[in-house]
Amino acid sequence: MLKDIVDEKFYSILQEGAARILSNDYVRLLTHYDGDGGSAAIILARALRRKNIKFHIGFIKSLDGIKFRERFEEARDLFTVITDAGSDQAGSISEYENVVILDHHFFRETPFKGLNINARNYGVDGTREACGATMAFLMAIAIDETNADLLPFMVSGAIADKQDIGGFRGLNRIIMEHYGKGLKPEHTLNLEGQTLQEGITYSTDPFFFDLSGKPENVKSELQKLSIDGNRSIFDLTDDEKRVLAEYLSWRLLSQNAGPEAIKYVESDILKFPGSDFSSKEISSIVDGNAKVGMNSVPVVYFLGDDSFRNDMIDNWKIFKTKLIEYAYRAYKEIFEDTNVRYFYAPESEMAGAISGILMLYMLKQDKPLIGFNVGTGDTKVSSRGSRRQVERGLNLSLVMKKSAEEVGGSGGGHDIAAGAVIPRGKEKQFVEVANRIVGDQLNHLFNDQN
Description:
- This protein has 17 helices and 13 strands.
- The model is unreliable at 445-450 (pLDDT under 50).
- It is 45% helix and 14% strand.
- With 450 residues, it is α/β, with parallel strands linked by helices.
């Protein structure tokens, strides 16, 4: 039961949110457009459908306060549930009462007439212990405990936010232990795809330099290891898994990847009854479709329309191919500053994913990375750091927020990954401010220890 896994205050506000949702016969779902937000949308859409509540889903790209308000006001009279975003934007829609927000990001408290449910207000680390899909799952359970079977999509959201690295912890772990008792994870290579050849070729997380996106190289290396690339990842023997894991770990070490990245070579992969896809595959498919502007395709498929399957897989492969190409390109065009690195991405939806690959798998772990997409309007910014940098004092949520505000924009997110929107042409000024703030954060702890 829900009351067994969250404290009394958390339980009470989830029940209040559920009551508000159930009092409506039509609900609009607004969710962040990425893998976590898409997974959250699937959870709530299925929960609403089971209660015969009509709904429609909209996706949010810009978290800028003004644009967020404009997006909300497209259907201001509808009761709205916002997932994987909204807490830090609540002030921009402060007068509206017909809103429930389910979020996990850092935020600043502002007056708000709706219901703002953020994991951080209940002692939960929203960076590592709960994601947007976690919050959506808790709300689905509050609506009806039979929604526990939607757990696969909570897992996919957590994976999309990299909250599975090193194993689930905190609230995510409690949920898994309580609602996933019958599931038996298989500890295997952290790859996705129908075959081993496909899994490594399309692998972006982990990203293997000169193997990802290079099918001929993958084929050649597998032949050297005497491993058949046409077999399923799940069909490998324990010895083959060990040999391949050691080889892939060596590849990562040779390309500057840190200890955090090495841990991601293997993972506990969950396969769910009645599903053709593993937990990692669901996460990657939802995120990949979102990044190529096809957010609704996996949502419709996972709501039960099998006719979308081929399109969904094709979109995933298109995304992977583009992302790999852009990662190689960006790697060659990195700019260095004292405390940060930065690059320019060709597409706004790719900047965050490229930043994640470069930071975790291809660059030294001494500085955070900033990615810019300079469009015809505003410039979108994504940033990534490492766990070690966060332990030293890095908080990219504050870096993005303060740097953006100084150049006339807005930003926020997690301590390890955050974003911003700034006026076009302000990129260099933004880097100067961010470079100074990061230096202050990382040097503060060093000075305290000396």
